[in-house]
Amino acid sequence: MAEPGTEITFRSDMTVDLIKHSASDADVIWAARVSTRGEQSLAEISAEPERSAGLINFLMRDRHGTPFEHSTMTFYVQAPIFVFREFMRHRTFSYNEESGRYRTLAPVFYLPGPDRPLVQTGKPGAYEFTAGTAEQHALVTEATRAACRQAYAAYQRMLAAGVAREVARTVLPVGLYSSMYATCNARALMNFLALRTRHPDAAFPSSPQREIELVAGQMETAWARLMPLTHAAFGRNGRVCP
Q1: The pLDDT of residue 41
Q2: What is the C-alpha separation between 230 and 59, in angstroms, rounded?
Q3: CB-based contacts of 158: which residues, under 8 Å, 6+ apart?
Q4: What is the CA radius of gyration of the chain?
Q5: Cα separation, 165 vs 192, whole angstroms
Q6: Does the chain have fewer CB atoms within 10 Å around its N or its C terminus?
Q7: Closest Cα to residue 29, out of 2, 60, 75, 1?
Q8: DSSP state of 46
Q9: Rounded distance, CA 239 to CA 242, Å?
Q10: Contact 23, 31 (CB under 8 A)
Q11: What is the DSSP string of 133-160?
């Protein structure tokens, strides 16, 4: 992100980095087998998970969810504040976000890109988005740039006058970029992905907001590399959280 005091930056992308993890398909296997093998399940910690792909699929298919909770992933996410407010509806994650009380917020704002559909048609719960006209895209760009510049200028004026950061930030829009750590297990992530991605294989189709779907897609890519058997079983069984 740009440092405070620099020129205002507009962007339309989302950044997701996997910071650390303890997550593998083997975690699912030993956690599941303790129910039938007790202490003998300890031998599964170092076993090859490919030998037990069928078990993972069985757990996913029959919705035995708790074995998928024995993993952790921590992501560092940069996205607009409105994305984080949707994100935090998922209370099975743990969050820590940068604070406008304690630091001067950088002038980085979300500007919808030219491929972002703009026009909503239909009723809530049964609507679609269409691209919008060139004139509408031009209006969104012009209005967003002007509003964000005006808001950040007001923020800077208050800070320069000695107003506390927690008060001055009230003029900033939800299109301002923030950053946070988000920690979850595989089961929580599957619930997130079921709701925040649109996928043709989903048993229960979802209609997520485009911006949070961009975040979810990057998280899914990272998770698929860590737990390929679990990810495949998730897709094979309708992308339903077990």
Answers
A1: 62
A2: 10
A3: 167, 168, 171
A4: 22
A5: 33
A6: N
A7: 60
A8: G
A9: 9
A10: no
A11: -HHHHHHHHHHHHHHHHHHHHHHHHHHH
Distance CA 59, CA 79 (A): 34
Residue whose entry in the numeric block shows the structure tokens 């950061």 = 165
Torsion angle defined by CA atoms of residues 137, 118, 179 and 91, in that order, rounded to the nearest 10 degrees? 170
Q: How far apart are the first and last CA of the chain?
A: 37
Domains of the chain in sequence order: 9-112+175-236 (3.30.1360.170)
Positions marked active-site: 196
Is residue 187 a contact partner of residue 70, using CB atoms and an 8 Å limit? Answer: no
Q: For 18-56, what is each residue's pLDDT tens digit?
A: 999 999 999 999 899 888 767 666 777 667 778 889 999
Give one DSSP letter per residue of 162-215, joined into a string: T--HHHHGGG--TTBEEEEEEEE-HHHHHHHHHHH---TT-SS-----HHHHHH
Nearest one of 197, 150, 148 to 177, comparing CA atoms: 148
| Residue corresponding to tokens 């950044």 | 15
